[in-house]
Amino acid sequence: MEEVFRTNDPVKLSYIRHLLSEAGIEVFVLDEHTAYIDGRGPLVPVRVVVHEDDADAARRALSELDQDG
């Protein structure tokens, strides 16, 4: 697995899932529940990871999005 994006924005995370799904790339999201554990908002950046074979294609699909975490 290889990390391709980090974000604290739940809307952006949803968009990332959509973009990668449309590209046929299986997405795994790490730390999503930990980020929101106390209810005040994201404390830990949510990490988006994909299989190593898909990492380059995923980065290309996400190249226009700004990393924020």
Report a brief summary of the structure.
With 69 residues, the chain is α+β, with helices and mostly antiparallel strands. The chain is 35% helix and 20% strand. The chain has helices at 10-22, 32-35, 55-61, and strands spanning 2-7, 28-30, 46-50.
Helix run count: 3
Poorly predicted ranges = none
Chain-averaged pLDDT: 87
The biggest sheet, with number of strands, parallel, antiparallel or mixed sense and barrel status, is:
3 strands, antiparallel
The ordered string of helix (H) and strand (E) elements is: EHEHEH
User: What percentage of residues falls in helices of 4 or more residues?
Assistant: 25-40%
User: What is the assembly state of the chains in this entry?
Assistant: single chain
Structural class: alpha+beta
Strand composition percent = 15-25%
Overall, the morphology is elongated
Distance between the termini: 19 Å
- Order the strands across the largest sheet as they lie in space: 1-3-2
Q: Give Rg in angstroms.
A: 12 Å
Number of strands: 3
Which key phrases capture this entry?
alpha+beta; elongated; 20% strand; 69 residues; 3-stranded antiparallel beta sheet
What does this structure look like?
The chain has three helices and three strands, in the order βαβαβα. With 69 residues, the chain is of the alpha+beta class. The protein has a three-stranded antiparallel β-sheet. It is elongated and about 35 Å long.
Structural topology:
Elements: E1 2-7, H1 10-22, E2 28-30, H2 32-35, E3 46-50, H3 55-61
Antiparallel strand pairs: 1-3, 2-3
